[in-house]
Amino acid sequence: MDNQIKSIVRDQSNADLSKETSELLDKVAEAFAYTQRSPILHSPSEAVELLHLTGGI
Length: 57
What we know:
Elements: H1 2-11, H2 19-37, H3 44-53
Helix pairs in contact: 1-2, 2-3
């Protein structure tokens, strides 16, 4: 599922992304996928906040 989300994000983005932008999109996709797996998180922003607090982002 994580790779599928990353693939969708990349498909909808410009193919000439900078490495930094690509890494950021990977983190956004990771946060979204984490939200989908977690019964207590309700939005990607909650996942981003949690990942930030735990050092993931």
